[in-house]
Amino acid sequence: xxxxxxxPRHLIKEKRETATLKCYPIPRHDxxxxxxxxxxxxxxxxxxxxxxxxxxxxxxxxxFSAQQFSDYHSELNMSSLELGDSALYFCASSSGxxxxxxxxxxxxxxxxx
Amino acid sequence: QKEVEQNSGPLSVxxxxxxxxxxxxxxxxxxxxxxxRQYSGKSPELIMSIYSNGDKEDGRFTAQLNKxxxxxxxxxxxxxxxxxxxxxxxxxRGSTLGRLYFGRGTQLTVWP
Lengths: 113, 112
Known about the structure:
The complex is a heterodimer of chains A (113) and B (112). With 113 residues, chain A is mainly β. Chain A has strands spanning 5-7, 10-13, 19-24, 31-37, 44-50, 53-57, 64-68, 74-78, 87-94, 103-104, 108-112. Chain A is globular, with a radius of gyration of 13 Å. Chain B has strands at residues 4-6, 11-14, 19-25, 32-38, 45-50, 54-58, 61-66, 71-76, 85-92, 100-102, 106-111. Chain B is mainly β and 112 residues long. In chain B, strands 2, 4, 5, 9, 10 and 11 form a six-stranded mixed beta sheet that branches. The N and C termini of chain B lie far apart (37 Å). The chains are: A mainly beta (113), B mainly beta (112). Chain A binds chain B through residues 31, 33, 35, 41-45, 48, 50, 55-56, 58, 88, 90, 94, 97-107, 109, and chain B through 31-32, 34, 36, 41-46, 49, 51, 88, 92, 96-105.
């Protein structure tokens, strides 16, 4: 079965640079979630989109923005990168909001030097 | 206090034994409960979901939910070395639109 696709898988950036992470949900899934997982930490919710509209917002820095496009893929844009932004960034998708199960992509490992 | 608490690990069991993982949550209005397995450096993999009080079985896995006690557990029967991973309990609160709250995870090691 098709899974969530994320690109790139690895990204190395310098401080104050920008980064764009992409997420392609499972076909026919209309809801996308972004999570950040630091070393030894549990995943922390950043933001979610349902039918191309922002549906919920968590602890996402103002330096970050995201959107969902007409084909349901989503992009997380990160500017003025800081060392503390180094983490695994996961995208998950589900069919609708609410009780629906979320399936995670392989993640993007971002390293800020 | 964290929204979701898991029993502190690490947990070590011999091959063939039953591994028991526990989780409590703070929001009484929580509706949906999930167990994810995460290998080091990999993404969380959904292994069980449970929405109603009682037990739910899927192969070697059994999830148990007690909403009155705000308690969720995962039993792994006939544990295998390949089950060695971190198990994350995740909760969907009633007041949110799909945001999952995770516990810190319990690291399980199954030794041959």
